[in-house]
Design a protein that fits this description.
With about 400 residues, this protein is α/β, with parallel strands linked by helices. It contains 13 helices and 15 strands. The structure holds pyridoxal-5'-phosphate.
Length: about 400
């Protein structure tokens, strides 16, 4: 069991703020300040270039990958960190398509995060082999797999919808795609650190995700990629960078992929950012993922109940059944942007996704029942008194 009252003080949460946006950018783990400072002062500052060996910088992408691996059900040695999630999506999909050279369809869904679809589109155009991307509504993906059948090269889905929090059935869809001989890529951006994932048990081929959302690695923290061990020595990296080479320091003019997951590395890892991620993962190492999920459901249910009882203008956009949701709750409201600005002005931080979604993330590591109740109270006051309807709350900022 995890005592979540002991994890809350491990985060820097400004006084007067209820932070319900850890699904978008996790807060600062206090220990990250000292860890990053030590990296700058004692490693970069003192060791200079010898830090690559002495401070173990070069091994960090694999070591951090293994720690994330525990949270997503990946065997040791099958996950590595680096680059951004957009890049990792591209890598996974490119490898999958190359393993299914005679097939032409990439199946995703209309709820996927745009960058995943943009990267797929860019890859398909670069390949110039006539790949087609299909994006049916999320609930029709299962039927579409069977309909496409043997032309399906890759099923590429984000497990939890970033807008609504709706969760796909990872095991069932992976099985259905495998049945027609396709490969499966799961984007775990809103899963890793939200609940226990089992990439090994569900037999996923590839999984990718970011570390700055639920994992709290900080803005710009590197992404991760998992490749099933049964495929890891077969995949050919499309982004064949020198650190994915079998012998990077042989400076061989020809590319030869490294063993297993090492070949998914591309270039120089972000050392300072990895120091922050390391501190964030120190907290995760002690978290029981089943306890986390139980508490996440408690918080989400409490929020839904409170909002529905006091805010008749808000309509639940997330599945009502907790088993079908990730660790966020979304409500629709025509003036959702303004209402969210009014909430933020009062210290309750969530976010807004066009056209009308107010999004709230629930993260048991630092959000408790008291936070949920005060967020509900503030939201219901703003709605009942129409405090959102002020000109300054209607002006859109660049980042929503
Ligand atoms: C957050 C998120 C991304 C972000 O990609 P970056 O390259 O890290 O900016 C991509 N895909 C999904 C599904 C996300 O939720």
């Amino acid at each position: 069991m995890t005592d979540f009252s002991s994890t809350k003080p491990l985060f820097a949460l400004p006084e007067g703020v209820t932070y319900l946006d850890g699904n978008s950018l996790g807060p600062l783990p206090i220990a990250a300040k000292e860890r990053v400072t030590a990296c700058l002062r004692d490693e970069w500052g003192e060791m200079l270039i010898t830090g690559w060996n002495k401070a173990g910088w070069m091994d960090q992408p694999r070591a951090l990958g293994d720690r994330i691996g525990r949270l997503i059900g990946a065997a040791p040695g099958s996950t590595v960190v680096g680059d951004t999630l957009s890049i990792k999506v591209y890598q996974a999909l490119a490898s999958a398509l190359e393993l299914r050279p005679d097939r032409r369809v990439i199946l995703s869904d209309s709820g996927n995060f745009p960058t995943d679809l943009y990267m797929a589109d860019g890859l398909a155009r670069s390949l110039g082999q006539g790949h087609r991307i299909e994006t049916p509504p999320p609930e029709e993906v299962g039927d579409r797999i069977a309909a496409i059948g043997e032309d399906l090269a890759a099923l590429m889905l984000t497990e939890v919808d970033y807008r609504t929090g709706r969760r796909h059935d990872m095991a069932a869809l992976t099985k259905a795609a495998h049945k027609v001989g396709a490969l499966v890529i799961w984007d775990l951006a809103h899963s890793a650190g939200a609940f226990a994932v089992d990439v090994g048990g569900t037999d996923a081929d590839f999984a990718v995700g970011c570390t700055y959302k639920y994992l709290n690695g900080g803005p710009g923290a590197p992404a991760f990629i998992y490749v099933a061990p049964r495929l890891a020595d077969q995949v050919r990296p499309a982004l064949s960078g020198w650190l994915g080479h079998d012998a990077p320091f042989a400076f061989d003019p020809d590319y030869r992929p490294g063993p297993g997951i090492d070949r998914m590395r591309v270039g120089t890892p972000p050392v300072v950012q990895m120091a922050a991620l390391e501190a964030a993962l120190d907290i995760w190492d002690n978290v029981d993922m089943n306890a986390l999920r139980t508490q996440s459901v408690v918080l989400c249910e409490r929020f839904i109940k409170g909002v529905e009882a006091t805010c008749p203008d808000l309509a639940l956009a997330s599945p009502r059944d907790a088993a079908m949701r990730g660790s966020q709750v979304s409500f629709r409201f025509e003036h959702g942007y303004a209402a969210m600005q009014a909430l933020i002005a009062r210290g309750v931080i969530g976010d807004f996704r066009a056209p009308d979604i107010m999004r709230f993330g629930f993260t048991p590591l630092y959000i408790d029942e008291g936070d949920v109740d005060s967020a509900v109270e503030t939201l219901s006051d703003i709605m009942a008194t129409r405090k959102w309807d002020r000109p300054e709350y209607h002006t859109r900022a660049a980042v929503t």
